[in-house]
Amino acid sequence: MSDLSNPEIFTGSAPATIKKIVVIGGGFAGINFAQNVAKNKNYQVTLVDKNNFNYFPPLLYQVSTSFLEPSSISYPFRKLFRKDNIRFRLGEPVKVDPATQTIYLKDGELNYDYLVFASGAKTNFFGNANIEANAIPMKSIDDGLRMRNALLQTLERATITQDPAERKKLLTIVVAGGGPTGVEVSGMLAEMKNYIFKKDYPELVNQPGAIYIIDGSPNLLGAMSEKTHKEAYKVLTSLGIKVKLNLHVNDYVDGKIMLSNGEVIESSTLIWAAGITANTFDGIPTASLGPGHRMITDGNNKVIGLDNIYAIGDACILMTDEAYPKGHPQIAQVAIQQGRTLAINFIAMVKGQPLKPFKYFDKGDMAIIGRNSAVVDLFKHTVHFRGVLALLMWLFIHLISLVNFRNKLRTLYNWAVAYLSRDQSFRMIFKSGV
């Protein structure tokens, strides 16, 4: 009888001279590390992910608001790796045993010579059970589909109810978090309200209700430049969004959103884009964890206090980069660069060459705000673009970042349809029945 927990059953036996690398997570960091290190035949790479597909988180909000299909931003790992020296394992890691160099999954185990955590992060509800139970997070494809269904079902309920107060509550949406995700989803929701309601929901035209965006800092897109702060505020308010800054959402009970200043907003929809925390695993000692449960690493992304275990992307905090003594921001470019740098270092190890400490090169930040507007900050925020030019830059960068040509073509087509028609045809409520 075959033992499915034996890694050799599905990865094939590796010669003693070939080192086995297990990569946990197939996001930006994991994919860039795996595909680059696999070019060296001295390594056998197995990538483990709880999903059987890679997806592009920066465009998740467009799936959530029915402007893109899930397949436009996702691609199956097994097809992605067909030409690479990479094996895929569907599984969810729960525990690591550094002493035996074993990673335990919910349905088996894998031995490794090197273990690389590229396990990303999850939504941080800051310990508030009510918000966790009732708000809509935005971290995964499942979250995006749940949000899409919830929004559409809420609109359908609003067309039926005869109670004006209930209708107002149903048509009031609150977005917690004024970072790129919160700003982008707010702008998309405002576009829907301004241009799609009159086509699809004539019963809801001119009905009361509002879209709020709430953030605890003094500015929207707080990590970006002052010019961007002002532009984001100007565009969102022009779209009819109510912006509330220097405030936190304290609780969400019975359709009532309690703010830190005592204000209460009655709403059936709270979208939570207010923070993330790293995924954690049994076997990683507390001493190896830093702020946000991120694994503390040295300059080469090796986890402090552990042998042969590395962490990259949102899973780690590296404080040896002089420009970022408190760690790097948890954004895509950091994850991509760390994945590539660690792959270079693994290949250097095989060749007996010195390792390259990670240094982040800040290529800039960008966010789309509305149909005709985006903001872009380059060169550590010294160069600023806004409006249509910034929008074209945003579209280009996000398009080329998708993993294959089919996704690029499909997404470009869907964007063109949505832009020209101010509409899209993906507003269907699909139920799994599970």
Defining key terms:
434 residues; alpha/beta; FAD/NAD(P)-binding domain; five-stranded parallel beta sheet; 25 strands; disordered N terminus
Share of β-strand residues: 15-25%
Task: Identify the CATH class of the largest domain.
Answer: Alpha Beta
Structural class, by secondary structure, is alpha/beta
Q: Strands of the largest sheet, in order across it? A: 5-2-1-9-21
Number of strands: 25
- CATH architectural designation of the largest domain: 3-Layer(bba) Sandwich
Low-confidence sequence ranges:
1-12
Count of runs of 4 or more consecutive helical residues: 13
Gyration radius from CA atoms, angstroms = 23 Å
Number of domains: 2
> What value does the average pLDDT take?
92
Report how far the terminal alpha carbons are from each other: 32 Å
Q: So what's the oligomer here?
A: single chain
Largest sheet report: 5 strands, parallel
Estimated helix fraction: 25-40%
**Given the C-alpha coordinates, what overall shape results?**
globular
CATH level 3 topology of the largest domain: FAD/NAD(P)-binding domain
